[in-house]
UniProtKB/TrEMBL annotation:
Chain ranges of the Histidine kinase domain: 484-686
Name of the protein in question: histidine kinase
SMART domains: HATPase_c (SM00387)
Enzyme class: transferase
Superkingdom of source: Bacteria
Organism of provenance: Zoogloea resiniphila
Catalytic activity, reaction form: ATP + protein L-histidine = ADP + protein N-phospho-L-histidine
EC number, UniProt record: 2.7.13.3
Pfam family, one: HATPase_c
Coiled coil residues, start to end: none
Transmembrane segments: 12-31, 38-58, 64-88, 109-130, 136-157, 169-190, 196-216, 237-256, 268-288, 414-433
MF terms (GO), sorted A to Z: ATP binding; phosphorelay sensor kinase activity
Keywords from the named record: ATP-binding, Kinase, Membrane, Nucleotide-binding, Phosphoprotein, Transferase, Transmembrane, Transmembrane helix, Two-component regulatory system
InterPro entries membership: HATPase_C_sf (IPR036890), HATPase_dom (IPR003594), His_kinase_dom (IPR005467), HisK_dim/P_dom (IPR003661), HisK_dim/P_sf (IPR036097), Sig_transdc_His_kin-like_C (IPR004358), XrtA/PrsK (IPR014265)
Length: 698
């Protein structure tokens, strides 16, 4: 037997050896110690070794390599037979279980022995059946036929519902056994091995690997952790289809040019341009990509979705909301991508209890409003069903049973309605438009949409809660500011009341009249400032340099009508701090006023201004009733805590907060019956500038 070698067998068996070796390594990495998986790895490994020996024989031409390859061919067939016999004994549903007979194991051993005998006859030149070649071809043919019989028995023993997982490997091995039947039958009839058929045998084996891989991924009982990426399958299929399409276009163009005469070249260019243009249109067509994805999901995977990828995609779409698109648009896109829909709209519940369209994608604006207590909303909340309007229109479901809203006919291309439920509350619902390609809405699609809808509802609920919290904080800030303003108004009213009490006795005193006019003017200015602060709804925090000596003198002067008399310690330095003058005057005035209120007419209250290092110190001392350490620690600086009958309990709290806001400190030393000392320390203006805090002054 002689061969005239060409490059075909070299490349053919090289491809088979590399493909089987790579596949075997991948199976080894994915193997989880299962017996069937181990047998599959052995079969693939022996196939790789068999292809490698045939490649070496094609390159070197040594006869002993051919004989060794034939021996490995017997081992390869035996490994696949043993794998099939092991699959015959796989557990299935009890009521559909078909008892695995014992004869396949015994017959398989006998057939493998017969095939090995045929190889021995070829190697030793024993003409048992005609010639050594015919003997080898006859035993090999019988082995291949037995492989088909065993495969047919294996396929029929699989329950109907389980054949989906075994069908790819059955097709792969059936193709290999059928090819061997053809090759060895030809060798038996013509007493020679066809070199062309033998040359392509390696490529034939390589082409069956994807089918074996698909079955391995579909059968977890083989204990392989194999996952075929949908993206890889999609892009690979699209690339292969594009290449085949361009090849057909090129072939058609060639023959058109060859037979077209003088018009041939022009027609060839027009055909090539039109073909490439059509390919570009298909590549950018969403409907075409959708149909291809649905086709691959139906025929190549056990489940329609790769849930890890889909869930990551939904989470990513929701997490990037705000980067050029609203949360509503992101939700519509995430849900529509799951079912190949071009877009839709989202209806959310408003403060009035009505659901209205808040966002849309590739959908016209709709003014449809659904009441919260409507039958449709109650249906969505109680059932949590995804409403399929296509089934309603076709009569597969009744409109009343499906909870179809009365306005469904007003929106064209309306297809699915997905409820958005979070913690048992109907947050809203999403309307999806008719898909680009027909999609079978089965339990898998419905469950995925429900789960994604709940995830989207949690985002909407969190968004609404955040908006409500922000609004509550705004009201809280306004209420706090209002409380401070009311507190200041109370102090101003107290000044006016004191002035009125003294007016009967001192109304003819020119000095009192002048003081009264100054007090009224001061109260009027303060009230205007407070009104402006309320109208702007934000505290006035603009900071400017404030001269403390002038500010303290003004406070002392404004309290001159009070008893006991307020005194300013002499020798006050001229220092400035960055603050809002009116607010700083207000908190210092509050501390001074509290000291005056706590001191009898025969006591004393003093204010001292000094400088220690780079800090301005304002000390207010009184000989009043004093405070306990527990009161200072637990109540003095707490809001709405007061011992005064008409007090609000926020003056000391505001004073401490503002001093800290300026970067200073407020400390208190007091004893019951011995008076109190309030010490306020603020960074002087030069220190603030040097520390880079001028930005705080706006």
């Amino acid at each position: 037997m002689e061969f005239t070698f060409s490059q075909v067998p070299i490349w053919s068996y090289a491809a088979a050896a590399v493909a089987h070796a790579v596949f075997g390594v991948y199976l080894g990495l994915a193997w989880k110690q299962g017996s069937r998986g181990g047998l599959l790895i052995v079969a693939v490994g022996v196939s790789a070794a068999w292809a490698a020996l045939n490649w070496a024989f094609a390159v070197l031409g040594w006869a002993w390599l051919f004989q060794l390859a034939n021996l490995l061919d017997v081992l390869r067939m035996g490994a696949w037979f043993v794998f099939l016999v092991a699959l015959l004994r796989q557990p299935v549903i009890q009521e559909e279980r078909i008892a695995a007979p014992q004869w396949p194991r015994l017959v398989t051993m006998a057939v493998i022995s017969l095939a090995a005998f045929g190889v021995l006859c070829l190697s030793l030149g024993l003409p048992v059946y005609g010639t050594p070649l015919r003997t080898w071809a006859g035993t090999s043919l019988f082995t291949a036929v037995y492989g088909l019989v065993l495969l047919e028995f294996f396929y029929r023993s699989i329950p109907e519902r389980s054949r989906w997982g075994g069908k790819p490997v059955a097709l792969a091995l059936g193709g290999l056994f059928a090819f061997d039947v053809y090759m060895f039958a030809d060798a038996l009839m013509f007493s020679r091995l066809d070199p062309v058929v033998w040359s392509v045998r390696g490529v034939v084996h390589a082409l069956t690997i994807p089918l074996v891989a698909i079955s391995a991924s579909r059968n977890p009982e083989w204990t392989f952790r194999i996952s075929v990426s949908r993206q890889v399958v999609f892009h690979s299929t699209a690339l292969a289809a594009s290449g085949l399409y361009l090849l057909l276009i090129a072939g058609a163009g060639y023959y058109m040019r060859y037979f077209g005469g003088e018009w041939g070249e022009a027609m060839q260019l027009v055909l090539l341009f039109g073909g490439v243009l059509l390919l570009g249109v298909l590549a950018f067509s969403g409907a075409f990509r959708a149909r291809l994805r649905v086709l691959l999901a139906k025929h190549f995977f056990a489940y329609r979705y790769d849930y890890r990828t889909e869930w990551l995609g939904v989470t990513q779409a929701l997490s990037v909301a705000g980067d050029g698109s609203s949360l509503g648009e992101s939700v519509v896109k995430a849900l529509s991508d799951l079912v190949e829909s071009p877009g839709g709209g989202v209806w959310l519940r408003g403060e009035d209890g009505c659901f209205s369209q808040q966002a849309r994608l590739n959908m016209p604006h709709s003014g449809v409003v659904e009441q919260e207590d409507s039958e449709f909303c109650r249906f969505l909340k109680e059932r949590e069903w995804v409403v399929n309007l296509e089934q309603v229109r076709s009569g597969a479901a009744q409109g009343g049973e499906a909870g179809v809203p009365v306005w469904s006919a007003e929106i064209s291309d309306m297809w699915l309605i997905v409820p958005l439920i979070s913690s048992g509350v109907l947050v809203g619902f999403v309307v999806l438009l008719t898909p680009r390609t027909p999609v079978d809405v089965n339990w898998e699609v419905l469950d995925l949409l429900k789960t994604a809808g709940r995830q989207a509802a949690s985002y909407f609920a969190r968004m609404q809660a955040s908006e409500a919290l922000i609004e509550a904080r705004k009201f809280d800030a306004f209420n706090r500011m209002s409380a401070f303003v009311v507190h200041d108004l109370k102090n101003l009213v107290a000044q006016m009341s004191l002035m009125l009490r003294n007016a009967e006795r001192h109304k003819d005193n020119p000095e009192f009249q002048a003081d009264m006019l100054d007090t009224v003017r001061h109260v009027e200015e303060r009230m205007r400032g407070l009104m402006a602060q309320l109208m702007e709804k934000t505290p006035i925090n603009q900071r400017k340099p404030v001269l403390l000596r002038a500010l303290v003198e003004h406070i002392v002067q404004s309290k001159r009508m009070f008893h006991p008399r307020l005194s300013l310690v002499e020798g006050a330095p001229e220092v400035a701090v960055l603050a809002h003058a009116e607010r700083l005057e207000r908190i210092l005035g509050h501390i001074v006023q509290n000291a005056l209120d706590a001191t009898s007419e025969h006591g004393s209250v003093s204010v001292e201004l000094s400088q220690e290092g780079m800090q301005a110190c304002i000390t207010v001392r009184d000989t009043g009733s004093g405070m306990s350490a527990a009161f200072i620690r637990e109540q003095l600086f707490k809001p709405f805590q007061t011992t005064k009958a008409s007090g609000m309990g926020i003056g000391a709290y505001e004073s401490q907060q503002y001093v800290r806001e300026l970067g200073g400190s407020l400390t208190v030393q007091s004893e019951v019956g011995s008076g109190s000392c309030f010490d306020i320390r603020l960074p002087i203006a030069e220190t603030v500038r040097k520390s880079g805090n001028e930005a705080v002054a706006n």
